[in-house]
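Hey,
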Amino acid sequence: MTAFENLMAHARDTAALDNVMTRLGWDQRTMMPHGAAHLRSEELAALETVLHQRRTDPRIGEWLEAAEAPDDAGTAALRELRRAYARNTRVPDRLAAELARVTAMGQEIWAEARRNDDVAAFLPILRQVIALRREEAAAIADGGDLYDALMQDYEPGASGAETAAMFDRMRPRLVALREKILNRPAPEPLRGTFPQDGQLRLARKLAEAFGYDFAHGRLDLTVHPFCAGHGEDVRITTRVVETEPFNCFYSTIHEVGHAAYEQGVDPAYALSPLGRGVSMGVHESQSRIYENQLGRSRAFTGWVFDQMQAEFGPLNLQDAEAFHAAVNRVHAGYIRTEADEIHYNLHIMMRFDLERDLLRGEIEAEDLEDAWNLRFEADFSVAVDRPANGLLQDVHWSAGLFGYFPTYTLGNVYAGCLFKALAAEMPDLDAGLARGDLGTPTAWLREKLQRHGALREPRATIEAACGFTPDEGPLLEYLEAKFGALYGL
């Protein structure tokens, strides 16, 4: 075998083992007995030790030095492997295993603390997670910025400084738009009780409408919705509150966007370095365009309105226009995952600033609740009423995912660019959406973006799909036009 063939064979087995670890994480967050948390943390630490040893195998360095790519896909695979090898060889086996063990326990402790509104119960494990991630960041930063080093795990090529500059450009227009909207009469919200079984039936129908393949996936309940898996096994989750069905429906559509990307990658790339989404920002572009530009459009919400009445009977909202307004109602709520399209990015900007301060040591775990509450009230003019609506609402920090949050807004920015290109090519887009037929836009996204997996770098992936250099302009223009029309601005 050539050096390239040896590399690909090694990478294939490593990816298969990583999929096993992903499945263990999915099980932990959906079906695992609560009392198995300690055992699961040890299992994940043991498997991470094996994976880390494979990822840092000295033969990889030798193969990379000798390998010759047979084609463009091979060149891209070598790029991904070089990046991963340079990162992983800086992290000791001990640290990799300890991070897996502590973050597995952290997610269980966080879930219990969230249920009990008990920040004090969460702080000890959070301190451990922060310390370990700082240590890891120092190891991989090679003297550079710690936060930038961690961002590379989620968005290669991104930096904290560039992200902060983009946020500074976006924030004034978002805040100005919000203030105009909040000075207008608020639309009537959806009210009522919507049983879990009915919500899940409609969630499955929505998933199928967006092209989710249940032959290679499943929908389950969890505390914090997520998508897990690649290729032929991609699983999604949602959550149900019987008085807030939009939470379930749009969480489902969001996770289907992630799943569509993974299910849509060219099967020829399976278990290779190209066989998954190239970054979390690009991943979020899929979940957000599915959820917002398509899923919350006037045309599609009209179809959802009919489906809800068929499932639950008459609603308090008298027609499709009132329903569309309720789906897109702007209000300063506590929860990021339930936020409207304007407030959502302000949630992300707050988390970005807080976690950068944490990585730099400017605040510590014990300062975080006060810092969160002060910043939230300053940004949203609402005081946090309980920890589950504040610091404890997101799973990310318990899982050690520092550097992940900004990819949500980057995904929104990318989605704005993709939708501009999609709408320009499909002037009759709304006709299909009004019938609940998303085949044309989802096929466009699969062809333009999803099937290519990690073939291109993140920004190049978006540029190739939409035909222009991405920036925040299309997103802000879309938001101003959509909400200007909704609120008569």
